[in-house]
């Protein structure tokens, strides 16, 4: 059932719109609050996403009852464009993750960046990022979706490059923007193609279109374009390299980016489109293949790392691969598994990233080989880390255990492809188990290691977030019945496009999934026990493999820069003569080629019956043209060009256009005067000396342009004259513009913007001429000032001037 906000629900619509706008309001007011309250402003700023979170929580009963809530406002009704939102189980869960975890991130950032000079700017960026992601996940219209999709790329660029004084931060930000922005262009093409195929411009309409998209011959093209956007956003292999590099951002950004925001956007898009693009051979092949590759690559690269944030970052890559794999697998169990794992991952990954930030903040290092024995100094942080690691490792009674059991229940099938994917999932989960407990145990157990700072427990602003997320992951498992009713079952139903009911619980069920879970745990313990050796082996393997996609990105950007320089040297050589020649060559081609190719050449006109004075004026124009061509110096050519222009003005006068004639007289007079002044002041060579071959080429070009215009005008005048515009201007010039002179009304009112543009062009031309003259004069003064004989030359010039007088 669909509930349309706005039909008797104006208050709810306004509150929903306010909830969507609150992050952007926070971006505006954050610097003011920080200036007044310092880092304690986080307590007040966190109320904004908290209010949005509570508002979206109010929809849980309706969504659980199977309702879908839509709302929005018309933007451009004539084009069918709306700012609209769609709330169902999928979008509501994402909205709750974005605002709920966002509230904790705001608090965490206040403690982590306490005393930072740019804390206000950081809060503005994080709120913009939050608002962009929130708008993306609730967007209904394709236009709204794409706008917020690109906003997430732009705001993540600002956050990743927050410490813009460091080259590594700038490179990581640019890399993320290029990869995700390029994918965004692919997504735009995909959405436009879907719009063209189905004639539908909103997700709610598309989800009700059935097999229209799958039955189209352009389905595969649309799928590849959509996957290009989703894979780049969610860091699927081989586009995974930008995500670990994004760890150059402050830890609050990393925690938010990896748990609830941008990297989940691609997965969200695949889940959203699963009902209309899934259940095809291409979908069920491409997604599992790339997802499996990403899962293995991410976990293997994570083993090599010693930095806590990088280890977690690579496991995020692998988790995203697992989510894509499950989304493409195509069974109901797989849909339930991907929903459970996405929620579990958001909770434990946000907590672990915050723990890594606390360890770095309180000890001065994130290197796992330089940490140990922090349990006694940081007991609360250790408890949060261990609870989150239990969920990430898939141990009961955490929510991650329920998700892992459901993953194995979905993949453990008898057919070969499912067996391969099951083996990949077990291997990836085992490695993630080892990494999770490496992050949660290595820094805290064993003897205390000396660190750059004396370790102690973090302040409440820092530990509040990881503690709450870790406890929520535990509570979600213990209260799984209610959690499934209000969160995961509606979300799974939205992803599957049909009603699903999840019943998984933390109580293990004897069978193949439990056996695979035990195998995962045993393999994970083995890797954890031999972690140093595994890290060494991976380093050796990667060293022999050579440069990866990250280095390839640098080569690509370097090649693009070199290519752009080469193209610029060809297209922009810095010679005005070439620019003008190419311009007139294109003009001649545009005029002549269509007339010749399409057989539109005009019929030869009859011999004109000219009076003697008319023929005289035409003869003067031809003589002026000959004078321009044969002139020996530039000034003669300018004056001859003016004679030709005056002759044309007289022709206008003779044929009943006195206003146009008057304009032509003024333009020609000013042109001659200005050009003569410029030529004399710039002191160019007196004559234009060109080789005969170049003169011949330029003559052909001039004849081509002239012939093209002449033929086009003849063709136009031979067509039947349409009086529609004439009648319109006659009828409305007096009525609308209150002017009797129709020509003046057209120029000033109906074409006022065009006239303004022409005036602006003339003004800019005058300014350019003035600048040239002043630059020339300034250069001459500078040369004269540097001339050692300037006084003697001045005396000679003065005597010569006196003699002339």
TrEMBL record:
Cross-referenced Pfam families: MbhD, MbhE, Proton_antipo_M, Proton_antipo_N
Sequence ranges assigned to domain NADH-Ubiquinone oxidoreductase (complex I) chain 5 N-terminal in this UniProt record: 78-123
Gene Ontology terms describing biological process: monoatomic ion transport
Intracellular or extracellular location(s): Cell membrane; Membrane
Ranges where the record places region Disordered: 783-805
Domain MrpA C-terminal/MbhE positions: 699-774
TM spans (from-to): 12-34, 41-65, 85-110, 122-139, 145-162, 174-195, 215-232, 253-271, 283-303, 312-331, 337-359, 380-403, 415-441, 461-486, 506-529, 578-598, 610-630, 637-656, 662-684, 696-714, 755-773
One of the record's GO molecular function terms: antiporter activity
Highest taxon of the lineage: Bacteria
UniProt domain NADH:quinone oxidoreductase/Mrp antiporter transmembrane: residue ranges: 139-424
Location of the MrpA C-terminal/MbhD domain: 620-683
Membrane topology value: Multi-pass membrane protein
Any one cellular-component term (Gene Ontology): plasma membrane
Keywords assigned by UniProt, alphabetized: Antiport, Cell membrane, Ion transport, Membrane, Transmembrane, Transmembrane helix, Transport
NCBIfam families for the chain: PRK12647.1
Protein name: Multicomponent Na+:H+ antiporter subunit A
Species of the source: Rhizobium lusitanum
């Amino acid at each position: 059932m669909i509930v349309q906000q706005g039909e008797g629900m104006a208050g709810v619509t306004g509150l929903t719109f306010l909830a969507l706008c609150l992050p952007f309001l926070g971006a505006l007011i954050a610097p003011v609050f920080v200036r007044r309250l310092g880092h304690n402003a986080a307590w007040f700023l966190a109320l904004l996403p908290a209010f949005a979170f509570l508002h979206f929580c109010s929809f849980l009963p309706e969504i659980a009852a199977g309702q879908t809530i839509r709302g929005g406002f018309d933007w451009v009704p004539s084009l069918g464009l709306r700012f609209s939102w769609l709330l169902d189980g999928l979008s509501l869960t994402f909205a709750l993750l974005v605002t709920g975890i966002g509230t904790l991130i705001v608090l965490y950032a206040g403690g982590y960046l306490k005393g930072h000079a740019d804390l206000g700017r950081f809060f503005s960026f994080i709120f913009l990022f939050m608002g962009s992601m929130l708008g993306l996940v609730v967007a209904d219209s394709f236009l709204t979706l794409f706008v917020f999709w690109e906003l997430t790329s732009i705001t993540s660029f600002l956050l990743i490059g927050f410490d813009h004084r460091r080259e590594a931060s700038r490179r990581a930000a640019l890399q993320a923007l290029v990869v995700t922005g390029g994918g965004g262009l692919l997504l735009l093409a995909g959405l436009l193609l879907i719009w063209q195929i189905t004639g539908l411009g909103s997700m709610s309409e598309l989800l009700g279109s059935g097999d229209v998209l799958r039955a189209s011959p352009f389905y595969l093209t649309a799928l590849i374009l959509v996957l290009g956007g989703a894979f780049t956003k969610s860091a699927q292999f081989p586009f995974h390299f930008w995500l670990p590099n994004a760890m150059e951002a402050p830890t609050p950004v990393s925690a938010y980016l990896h748990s609830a925001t941008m990297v989940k956007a691609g997965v969200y898009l695949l889940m959203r489109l699963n009902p209309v693009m899934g259940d095809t051979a291409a979908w069920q092949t491409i997604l599992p293949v790339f997802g499996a590759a990403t899962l293995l690559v991410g976990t293997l690269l994570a083993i090599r790392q010693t930095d806590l944030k990088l280890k977690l970052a690579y496991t995020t890559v692998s988790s995203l691969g697992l989510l894509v794999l499950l989304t493409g697998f195509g069974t109901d169990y797989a849909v339930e598994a991907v929903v459970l794992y996405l929620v579990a991952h958001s909770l434990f990954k946000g907590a672990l990233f915050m723990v890594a930030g606390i360890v770095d903040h309180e000890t001065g290092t994130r290197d796992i080989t330089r940490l140990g024995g922090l349990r006694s100094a940081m007991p609360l942080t250790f408890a949060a880390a261990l609870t989150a690691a239990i969920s990430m490792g898939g141990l009961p009674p955490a929510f991650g255990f329920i998700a892992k059991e459901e993953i194995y229940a979905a993949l453990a099938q008898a057919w070969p492809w499912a067996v391969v994917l099951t083996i990949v999932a077990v291997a990836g989960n085992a490695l993630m188990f080892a990494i999770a407990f490496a992050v949660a145990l290595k820094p805290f157990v064993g003897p205390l290691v000396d660190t750059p700072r004396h370790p102690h427990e973090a302040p409440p602003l820092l530990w509040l977030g990881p503690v709450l997320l870790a406890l929520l992951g535990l509570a979600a498992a213990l209260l799984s019945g209610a959690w499934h009713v209000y969160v995961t079952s509606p979300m799974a139903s939205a992803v599957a496009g049909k009603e699903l009911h999840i019943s998984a619980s933390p109580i293990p069920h004897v069978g193949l999934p439990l056996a695979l879970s035990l195998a995962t745990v045993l393999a994970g313990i083995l890797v954890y026990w031999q972690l140093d050796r595994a890290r060494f082996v991976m380093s050796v393997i990667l060293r022999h493999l050579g440069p990866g996609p990250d280095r390839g990105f640098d080569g690509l950007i370097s090649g693009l820069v070199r290519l752009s320089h080469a193209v610029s040297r060809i297209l922009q050589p810095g010679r005005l003569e070439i620019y003008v020649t190419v311009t007139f060559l294109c003009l001649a081609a545009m005029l002549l080629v269509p007339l010749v190719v399409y057989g539109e050449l005009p019929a030869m006109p009859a011999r004109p019956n000219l009076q003697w004075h008319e023929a005289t004026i035409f003869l003067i124009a031809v003589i002026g043209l000959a004078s321009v061509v044969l002139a020996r110096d530039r000034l003669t050519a300018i004056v001859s060009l003016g004679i030709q222009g005056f002759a044309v003005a007289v022709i206008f006068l003779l044929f009943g256009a006195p206003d146009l004639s008057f304009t032509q007289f003024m333009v020609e007079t000013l042109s001659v005067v200005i050009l003569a002044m410029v030529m004399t002041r710039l002191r160019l060579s007196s004559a234009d000396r060109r080789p005969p071959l170049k003169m011949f080429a330029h003559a052909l070009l001039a004849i081509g342009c002239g012939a093209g215009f002449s033929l086009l005008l003849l063709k136009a005048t031979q067509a039947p004259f349409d009086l529609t515009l004439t009648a319109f201007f006659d009828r409305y010039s007096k009525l609308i513009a209150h002017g009797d002179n129709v020509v003046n009304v057209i120029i000033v009112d109906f074409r006022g913007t065009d006239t303004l543009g022409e005036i602006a062009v003339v003004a800019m031309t005058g300014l350019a001429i003035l600048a040239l003259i002043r630059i020339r004069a300034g250069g001459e003064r500078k040369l004269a000032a540097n001339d050692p004989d300037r006084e003697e030359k001045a005396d000679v010039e003065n005597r010569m001037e006196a003699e002339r007088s």
